[in-house]
């Protein structure tokens, strides 16, 4: 199969059906826009499983996603979409780049969720932009942005509840959307400890990629813990 694209954590392959692709999850991990590189053993397998369980939950609750089915430990069959060059970030609690930018302590609750968009461009380092930039630069239309924000609001509400049942606080997360051949905007890419900040409700222990970014150790164990709790929840 021909590889169409290779990202930091995944490879995309074509299939015989022009409307479908295969998403292959790798163990590679990067942080700081590629400045820090490494591998997290078994991450691809765990993130494939974790994304699958989260997507199934979201789909059950009316969110449309690119996932068709999970084929094996590292591969998913997905609808082919044109990914909008935007990362949509939701912050329920201040952490990471927001803590740094606004000099607010990590862990500070905010009055309502903050939605941010970043322009997906490695050369620029994925800069934070606003709706006016996105429209002016032709990255998305007003209608596409409105649709994305509506879905993100619902995804956040569903995920806060889902993680809460597993004893986890959803601090923040990033999602991406794609456009199908018939113009629909659907959730694409992954949702995993690579793309979410997840803190244990009781202990505030970090169970996400910050363990890799900040050299905290026990990275794989954190991903395993997230998968174990998700799997238990499904039963
Ligand atoms: O680094 P920052 O605090 O802006 O990240 C906010 C959230 O978005 C975190 O959950 C992080 O894992 C996620 N993120 C991501 N991919 C990026 C940037 C941020 O998944 N390129």
TrEMBL record:
Documented EC number(s): 6.3.2.6
Enzyme class, broadest EC rank: ligase
Signal peptide segment: none
PROSITE patterns per UniProt: SAICAR_SYNTHETASE_1 (PS01057)
Residue ranges constituting the SAICAR synthetase/ADE2 N-terminal domain according to the UniProt record: 4-229
Keyword annotations of the record: ATP-binding, Ligase, Nucleotide-binding, Purine biosynthesis
Pathway: Purine metabolism; IMP biosynthesis via de novo pathway; 5-amino-1-(5-phospho-D-ribosyl)imidazole-4-carboxamide from 5-amino-1-(5-phospho-D-ribosyl)imidazole-4-carboxylate: step 1/2
One GO MF term attached to the UniProt entry: phosphoribosylaminoimidazolesuccinocarboxamide synthase activity
Catalyzed reactions per annotation: 5-amino-1-(5-phospho-D-ribosyl)imidazole-4-carboxylate + L-aspartate + ATP = (2S)-2-[5-amino-1-(5-phospho-beta-D-ribosyl)imidazole-4-carboxamido]succinate + ADP + phosphate + 2 H(+)
Assigned protein family: Belongs to the SAICAR synthetase family.
UniProt-listed NCBIfam families: purC
Name of the protein described by the UniProt record: Phosphoribosylaminoimidazole-succinocarboxamide synthase
Species, as recorded: Breznakia pachnodae
């Amino acid at each position: 199969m021909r590889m169409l694209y290779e990202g930091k954590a995944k490879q995309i392959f074509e299939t015989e059906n022009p409307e479908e692709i295969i998403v292959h999850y790798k163990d590679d991990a990067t942080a700081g826009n590629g400045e820090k590189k490494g591998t997290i053993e078994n991450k691809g397998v765990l993130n494939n499983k974790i994304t699958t369980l989260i997507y199934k939950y979201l789909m059950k609750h009316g969110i449309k996603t690119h996932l068709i089915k999970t084929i094996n430990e590292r591969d998913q069959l997905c609808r082919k979409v044109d990914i909008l060059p935007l990362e949509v970030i939701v912050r329920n609690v201040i952490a990471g780049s927001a803590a740094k930018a606004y000099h607010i302590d990590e862990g500070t609750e905010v009055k309502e969720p903050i939605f941010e968009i970043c322009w997906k461009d490695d050369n620029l380092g994925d800069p934070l932009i606003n709706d006016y930039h996105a429209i002016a630069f032709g990255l998305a239309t007003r209608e596409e942005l409105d649709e994305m924000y509506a879905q993100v609001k619902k995804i956040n509400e569903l995920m806060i509840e889902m993680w809460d049942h597993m004893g986890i606080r959803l601090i923040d997360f990033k999602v991406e959307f794609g456009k199908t051949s018939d113009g629909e905007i659907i959730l694409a890419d992954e949702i995993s400890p690579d793309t979410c900040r997840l803190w244990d409700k009781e202990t505030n222990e970090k169970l996400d990629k910050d363990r890799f970014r900040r050299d905290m150790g026990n990275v794989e164990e954190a991903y395993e813990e997230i998968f174990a709790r998700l799997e238990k929840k499904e039963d």
